[in-house]
Amino acid sequence: MAHVDVHAGIDLSGGVLIDGLPGQGLVGKIAADHLVESLDLAHVGTCHCDGLPEVATYRTETTTVRAPVRIHADESGDVIVLQSDVPVSPSTAEDFAACLTQFLDDEDILPLYVSGKGVENGDSVDDIDSVEDVDDRQVIGVATGDASGFLTDLDVDDPADSGAITGPTGALLYAAIRQSVDAVGIIVETTPQFPDPEAARQFLDRAIVPITGIGLETESLIEQAEEIGEARERLAREMSQGGDESSSVQPIGFQ
Q1: CA distance 70 to 57
Q2: What is the rounded distance in angstroms from the CA atom of residue 128 to the CA atom of residue 25?
Q3: CA triplet 140, 227, 28: central angle to 5 degrees?
Q4: Which pLDDT belongs to residue 14?
Q5: pLDDT > 70: what percent of the chain?
Q6: Largest Cα–Cα distance of the chain, in whole Å?
Q7: Domain ranges of the chain
Q8: What is residue 87's DSSP assignment?
Q9: In whole angstroms, what is the distance from residue 174 CA to residue 181 CA?
Q10: What SS3 class is residue 17?
Q11: Residues annotated as region Disordered (predicted)?
Q12: CB distance 171 to 187 below 8 Å
């Protein structure tokens, strides 16, 4: 039976869940991994929901295998992170969203979802002079139910144009509407083709930290953004040189 299994005997009721599903710019994934590592959050639960890949994942320096989508939390159960090692397919996101949303409703947990908004034609994101220039990154807040009150004091914009949130995040927000669950959605301007630690930093600084009230260091994400920016520049130079080698793209890793 599809369910979320909390196996650590911790009370999560009243907490805030941060979305860590991989998406454009890996904004949620980077933010979730940073939270788990920086706050030393414990693995307290596992998602056994329909729509998730049935795979086992493992990490360096350990022989233990884990389910790909897990719940991590602090000792108080106030900060909850949905950490995922795999993307959720849009074709199966509806089943996963219904399962997770039922769990959030039962436990009275406020979900804080994030979606990267890709910018085309090099506008805005690629025009930023410095990764520290956060004002040029647009961050938009939306909500379901009564959760709009959480957006009041955040450094986020109201939507200036109409739009649709698709993929797993869209399915999660739609499930929140359908099941009358309060939820916050944060849309962050990001580079769609590359991991974007700066976008993740803004999600953390402008949404997660104010809503949860936690103390969190995010400056280390700037170094990741600089490294990825340098790798993007190298790739652009290689592509501009032409020849057969221009079609070969190497993965860009980050810690």
Answers
A1: 11
A2: 16
A3: 35
A4: 96
A5: 83
A6: 59
A7: 3-244
A8: P
A9: 10
A10: strand
A11: 235-255
A12: no
